[in-house]
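dumping this here so i dont lose it again. seq + smiles for flavin mononucleotide
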Amino acid sequence: MDLVTALARARSPEEPGPDTPAGPPVRRWPDPPRPVPPARPGELDLDRLLRLSLTAGDGAGRLRPAASAGALHPVDAGLVVGTGCPLPPGRYGYDPLRHRVHHLGPAPAGTPPGVSAELSVTPRRTISHYGHRAWPLLLLDTGHTAGALWLAARALGATPALHLDGRTPSAGDPEPIGHGAHRPAADPVATGADAEPLATVHVPPPRHTAGPHDVPARRSAPTPLHGTPPPEDLHALLTTVAEAGAGELAWCAAVGGPRPGLVEAAPDGTLRRIASGDARPTLAVWAARQAWIARAGAVLLGHGCPMDAGAARIRRVHLRAGHAVQLAHVTAARRKLAARPVGSWQRADLGAALGGPPGRDLVVHALALGTAHPEERTS
Ligand SMILES: Cc1cc2nc3c(=O)[nH]c(=O)nc-3n(C[C@H](O)[C@H](O)[C@H](O)COP(=O)(O)O)c2cc1C
C-alpha cells in the first residue's frame, strides 16, 4: 500500500479495529548507554537541547515536549554529532526515557559542526491504537517533534535548519514510497533502521550565549475547552501557523460565540470573516466524532492537501502541519490559552462544505483552543 492509498483510507469512515500491542516505547539502540556530558564554553548545550525537545517528563514516556497522537510517541531520534558538541563526533541513537545516547558509528564525512537530529518513526506504536488511521498521524507527530527541536534550538540562541520534505524519492519510484527491499510493503512512510529520515533538524553551535530565553511548558489541555480567545490571540496564532507551515496549507479558525463563523488573519492585524455559521459541530463529526470539539472556544484549522496529492506532497504537507501546530501550541501556552491538537480527520472536506469543488481542500490538522484551563475557571 502506498501513502496515497493509506491517506485515502485514513480519511474514510472505516473504523479502526481493537487495540494491538504497541511494543517498546524506545527503539533498541546498541549498548552501552552513555550520559550526555555538560557543554564546555563555546559548545552546543546538547543536554539542554535534548531536555527541551525530546526528553520524557514521566517514567512511562507519555509526557514529552512535543505533543503526540494518543501519547504514543512513535518518533525516534538519531543524532549525527559534529564538532562543537560535548560528545565526540559520531552517529548516536537517543533514548528519551533515560536521557542517554548510544553510539552507533562514525559521523559521515562532511558532517557540519553541531548536531543533526534525524527523525524516523516506529509505526507500530501509533498503529496499536489508530490502526489504518495511523499513517497521517505518524507524519504529523514527526512534524511536532521537529517543531519542539526548532523551538529548543532557538531557546539556546542557535539558528536551526529544518528539512521537512520527507524521504527523497529514488529513481524509478518518483511518487509512492516503495523504495528499498528492507521496508515491508505495508509501510507507506519511510521507516526502519536504514531508511532515510522523514525529517532532519540541524542545530549549529550558537554564535553567542543565549539570554534567559526558554520554551514555555506545553501540555494538551484536558477537554472540554471553552471560551473564544480574543481576536489578537487568534491573529497571532494564525500568523504563527502560516509562517511555520511555509505555504503548504491554508489556515483559518472556526469560532463560536455570538457571531460564529470561520475567520482568517488579515494583513492589517485584524480577523477577516470568510464564512458565517457554526462550523464546530461539523468539525466534531469529521474528527472521529469527538463531541467536545462542537463546544471548543475556537478551532484553528490547517487545510489543503487535495485527494489527488502525490506521496511527496502528502509527506511535506503533514510534516509542515505538525511543525506549525507544535509552534502554535507553544504560542498558545505563552498567551495563557488552553489548547489541544486534533489530528484525525475523516471526510473533512472543508472546501466542498463551503461550496467549492469536492476533494480539493481537506482538513489536515487542527488546534482546538479555549480561554482557560478548567482548574483556572473553577478557582
Ligand atoms: C498529531 C496529533 C493528533 C492529535 N489528535 C488528538 C485528537 O484528535 N483528540 C485529542 O483529544 N487529542 C489529540 N492530540 C493530543 C494528544 O492526545 C496529546 O498530545 C497527548 O495525550 C500527550 O499529551 P500532551 O500533549 O499534554 O503532551 C493529538 C496530538 C497530536 C500530536
